[in-house]
Amino acid sequence: MTVKRDNINYLAVGSFVLAMGVVLLYGLYRITGQSGKGDEYVTHFGNVAGIKVGSVVTFEGYEVGNVAAIEPVAHEGRTRYRVALNLRKPVRVPSDSCAMIAAPGLLSAPLVEIKEGAGKEMLAVGGEIRGVAGANLMESVATLAGQLSEMTETGLKPMLAQISRRVDSLGSSMEKNLPPAMDDLRATMARLNTTATRVESLFNEDNRKRWESLLGNADEASASALKLSRELHSVTKEVNDLVRDSRSIVNGSGRELEASLRRADSVLYQLESAGRHMNEFSRQIRENPSSLISSRPPAEARGDEK
């Protein structure tokens, strides 16, 4: 009984594994697009990198079939590839439509994309769809990487080397010139501190009072100068009056002119006598300066006292 039961278990497990294998094979068959026969069209590409038999075929982004076959053919001395497209879903393909190899995403597998044309005439089953070179994302990335590598080698590395040399030169220059500059800066700061101290002492409280006194004296001197200007103006006016009087005297009678001349002679005589007395007085002061402090009375006064 036990052996019979084990055989039944082995048979059940084997049947289950076999059924799962069939299901897996059917799923793979459906995934690869070989599940049905549809309308076949052909196109030609100069490069079929990324696509293979079973690759998806889309019509304006809508999946309609798969690649049925890829065959190299000679065309005008060059090798091109004839790609058979199996369209399982019925679509109307205008005669001016085109096919290209495209990648919908960075990690997606390349596929054949059919771009719908604008023509009214439809392409018959088995006809050829014009193949065009599509944008290959990986090729573009590789080209960009090559350009970046070339730019790094030809531009970035020399620039970095030049920057490094400039930085080294700047560092050595700073190391050489910075200490003297710092010494000069310290000396300048010391002079500035000394100057600030002198300025502060110049404007201390005592000097501020002296400045205020000086400004007050300047105001007084200005007022005195104004007063002197007014007095000079008055004197000028008197001189003008004197000149007018002199003209009137000159234009007057001869007798008045003679009397004026006599008076002028008398004034001149008195001025001459005063000048002699001043000369005598200054001579005595030079000979005996102490006479300014203790002077003797004149002879007439001593005789009166006697």
What does this structure look like?
- With 306 residues, this protein is an alpha/beta fold.
- The chain is built from 5 helices and 7 strands; from the N terminus they run αβββββββαααα.
- 60% of the residues lie in helices and 15% in strands.
- A hairpin with a 2-residue loop joins strand 3 and strand 4.
- The longest helix is centred in the middle third of the chain and has 66 residues.
- It has a 7-stranded mixed beta sheet, with no helix packed on it.
Can you tag this structure with a few keywords?
306 residues; alpha/beta; 5 helices; 60% helix; rod-shaped
Number of helical stretches of at least 4 residues = 5
Strand content: 15-25%
The number of distinct β-strands equals: 7
**Mean pLDDT value:** 77
**Span between termini:** 194 Å
SS-based class = alpha/beta
CA-atom Rg in angstroms: 65 Å
Low-confidence segments? 291-306
Tertiary shape: rod-shaped
In spatial order, strands of the major sheet run 1-4-3-2-6-5-7
Biggest sheet layout: 7 strands, mixed
Q: State the share of residues found in helices, binned by percent.
A: 55-70%
Order of helices and strands: HEEEEEEEHHHH
